[in-house]
Amino acid sequence: MKRHRSILILLLATLGSVFLITHLQAGAAPAPPAAPASGTDDSIDRGARALLVEGRRVFRYDTFGSEAFWGGKLRLHEAVLGQGLGGVGQGVSPKTALSLGLKVDAAALPKAVVDGIKSGAISLDKPETTVELLKLNAVLGLTGTFDAGKKTLTGLGIQCALCHSTVDDSFAPGIGRRRDGWPNRDLDVGAIVATAPSLKPFEELLGVDDAAVRSVLKSWGPGKYDAELDQDGKAKRPDGKSAATLLPAAFGLAGVNLHTYNGWGSVTYWNAYVAVTQMHGQGTFFDPRLNDKDQYPVAVKAGFHNVRNTPDQVTSKLAALHYYQLSIPAPKPPAGSFSAAAASRGKGVFEGKARCASCHVPPLFVEPGWPMHTGAEIGIDDFQASRSPDKRFYRTTPLAGLFTRTKGGFYHDGRFADLQAVVAHYDGHMKLQLSESEKADLVEYLKSL
Ligand code: HEC
Ligand code: HEC
């Protein structure tokens, strides 16, 4: 027993000195662990930062290989070039691009270009300038591909930032610093797509001719897009108006369970859906709910319920993209854009007599849990609700940052032109009997969110 103990002591002493010697020699730094640290504060913080940076890059700059569609099939870049530069039509000058709602990232412009635009030496009337802006990667949500010499525009791909970012107009209207997550309610997606020389893929999918596709695209108008048309083929609502919806905010999404106006799924579900079936990126998307020929005849024809492209340029980016969107806070309205005193009275109305907070639960302004309601509950038709896989519900819209989306109106299709109209709708539908001053206070509160 005694002998064993002394051997043990000897062994420990030897090990201890070996340890000391090696570490003193190595400048006292502990040896790196064999496996990377996991679960420590430091590794989590570093991982979070890496996801954020990569997610931002994907959101702003990744085309997911979509140039094979927008450039390769629709030849959209030829419309940008115009006949003069070897494309088709008049070409798209920066002025035209801005008038279609496209935005320019001022941070991507070198000083010489800024000076040239200011002095007028660089013309905003020529498609050549648009090509230069694309070379600088300065057009939000559009990326050009170029030949090896970086001379000729050979294709065009799109990004999330096309519809879900805008700029602060700090340089000029439509040119400024990026604002990720703000819906671009100036953007006329349909008019932009309709400049493409070929719309064959849409003709084939929808089973209609070129003129019919163009008329659908032109029926959307600024700030709208129809993300479900190439699944159910419904271009119009029963009342004959366009079935397109408003571009929603992509900020303030953390803590919210379901996304899209009619709750298709989580943020990451929808990101895969959009990247593969709407942006026509090269990736993987699986949702057997779409394999229903009565509800989604177009999806069934296109096989959208089970898309497998190789190489897959989407799946590896979903985690970072998800993380980034959850990191974008809802913006606060500028001071002076609402009456603080009226807003504070309006808060009482919102949480009390008007019962708004029963669905728009502060501070998320959406129910924790399953935030879905029928059209009848909120006093509207159920057309858009019926287009989602569960066919029945609208999701309670998170209300923070409402001031960024006043253009185009409120509710999924902008049916209420302003907040006064929204409040009047609830007042009638829910028989709230709000006084005129309560309604006005409620509107000021909504403006303050
Ligand atoms: C062509 C315009 C367009 C592009 C490009 C686009 N989106 Fe959207 N996005 C929409 C529209 C329209 C909706 C609403 C769809 C609906 O409710 O049916 C939407 C909905 C969303 C939502 C749901 C927001 C909510 O809570 O309701 C998120 C999140 C989102 N998009 C993120 C993205 C990301 C990430 C990308 C890139 C992978 C992307 N979008 C690309 C137009 C676009
Ligand atoms: C029964 C649940 C419910 C109640 C109660 C409710 N809402 Fe809503 N709210 C919704 C749903 C669902 C939507 C989405 C409707 C759509 O997009 O068509 C919505 C949308 C909105 C919008 C539009 C947001 C946007 O970006 O377009 C505003 C504003 C709003 N509600 C304010 C209110 C106010 C103010 C009250 C109280 C008077 C209220 N809501 C009561 C469920 C509710």
Key attributes of the depicted protein:
449 residues; mainly alpha; Cytochrome Bc1 Complex, Chain D, domain 2; two-stranded parallel ribbon; two-stranded antiparallel ribbon; 20 helices; 12 strands; 41% helix; globular; binds heme C
SSE blueprint and pairings:
Blueprint: H1 2-25, H2 41-61, H3 67-70, H4 76-81, H5 94-99, E1 104-105, H6 111-119, H7 127-135, E2 142-146, E3 153-158, H8 161-164, E4 165-167, E5 175-176, E6 178-180, H9 189-193, H10 200-206, H11 210-220, E7 224-225, H12 229-232, E8 245-246, H13 267-278, E9 284-286, H14 297-302, E10 306-308, H15 318-327, H16 340-351, E11 372-373, H17 375-378, H18 383-386, E12 394-395, H19 419-429, H20 436-448
Parallel strand pairs: 1-5
Antiparallel strand pairs: 2-3, 4-6, 7-8, 9-10, 11-12
The structure holds heme C (HEC) (2 copies).
How would you summarize what this structure contains?
With about 450 residues, the protein is mainly alpha-helical. The chain folds into three domains: about 55-225, no CATH class; about 250-325, no CATH class; about 340-449, Cytochrome Bc1 Complex, Chain D, domain 2, CATH 1.10.760.10.
